[in-house]
# Entry
Amino acid sequence: MPELPEIETIKTGLAPLVEGQMITRAIVRQRKLRWPIPSKLSKILSQQIIHKLGRRGKYLLFYCDRGCLLIHLGMSGVLTFVPQKTKLKKHDHVDICFADGSCLRLHDPRRFGCMLWTDDDPLQHKLLINLGVEPLSKKFNAKYLFMQTCKRNVSIKQLLMNNKIVVGIGNIYAAEILFKTKIHPATCANKLTLSHCNAIVRTTKVILKRAIKAGGTTFRDYRASDGKPGYFQQKLFVYGRQGEACKICDAKLQSIILGQRSTVFCPNCQDRL
# Structure
């Protein structure tokens, strides 16, 4: 599933292409995504201008004249900006067509994404209102993280992936963050000190910024809006490397299941508190 760096990369790539564009219609070939696409979406969007493209967590927010279009890519969704006459592929479910002959095309084989509309403030939408802080914001700091960890009897890996606490840190980046901070992923969150939390926060911001700069991480279905892969995969230390040698100490990397998700770690470099 695309995580925050991938979505931010897509937003950065699409913003100059769609901002200021007038929508002529929406062509919906398949309404049944995670939640049904509104039946009147084409009528709603017709003649509206996209004034700004934003992001909240893993949701892309297309701010228009009279509301906002919310798009989540789920596990396999891809958005590309193409000419309207571009040959269709299987699973090309939606085209947002623009006056200049281009379109924003949603391709989603697994159909776990969503495309919804709200007339109101999108940040108050039921899918967004309870999201946690943005990891690259000032609100995500050592004090905040410590307050979230000190009373929770859950692994730090699971806590970092809890979108009600901090958004967008999925399996890939949580594993990498904990490796860099030398903390075992199964460590109980309430065992962390303020110093540990400070290290996690600083490392989170560094890793996410580097991943965004590299265009995200490519695994399975993910591609950026221009169809190109992300390159942060080349810099991964643990994720997807079970059984391989640690790049730091040469120990064999191991894998455990936490919260029904596999996580790879180094038994030598990462200490369990």
Residues 218-227 have pLDDT under 50 and may be disordered. The first strand starts at residue 23 and ends at 28. The radius of gyration is 20 Å.
